[in-house]
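Listing S7. Sequence submitted for prediction.
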Amino acid sequence: MGVSTSSPEKGISVVTMDFPPVNALPVQGWYDVADAILAAGRAPGVRCVVLCAADGCRGFSAGVDIKEMQREAASGAGGRSTLLGANRGCYEAFSAVYRCEVPVIAAVGGFCLGGGVGLVGNADAIVASDDATFGLPELDRGALGAATHLSRLVPQHLMRALFYTSRTATAAELRAHGSVWQVVPRPRLRAAALELAREIARKDGYLLRLAKAALNGIDPVDVHRSYRFEQGFTFEANLSGVADRVRDTFAQEDK
């Protein structure tokens, strides 16, 4: 369990998230994802990184581990270390995908929710299974954030409707909007992601790094500043007490 890195082929690194059953990442997990992706991108022989979930997880990611926050609240300590850690960890992990020196492919199977959208929205390409769904249930979880990244996957008005309703969009819908490269049956997901990674990895490694820096430089959205702006409202929701009330309701419904 945790985050691991493998090298199935020359020039390709695969970073795997394994937090069963739903890949809800604890605080340290977000930092581990960030470290693994940045380390893979710095490796001289790597030309493409694939980010995926372990086979034993039901989906790509359910986002932040809400139960970790609940355990801290139930302890009576009154601290906010888990909340602060999750916010900082998410920022670092999302940023790492964007700042990785080489292209990052997100291989998405099953659900991709909350922080999962943050990771995928900053990826360079997305390969998804035909049962993949994407969404931000943040308003139902006492949180905000990652609209920055959802807006990189769907048009502005659809992003807003999805955010307000906590509904999800399918991989087929995202492909229609041009944000998903390929939709394949779930058993074919890893192979399809590696096929795309293999095609990218045939390019010159130095030129790929220049290309990644150039594309980030012309990006119309400053993903770092935009997401940090969103996080400020997440903190306001927590300081006001409304986030705790909503999280408590979610925890009761989840039992």
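Caption to Listing S7: primary sequence and predicted structure tokens for the chain studied. Residues 211 and 217 are 10 Å apart (CA to CA). The chain has a mean pLDDT of 93.
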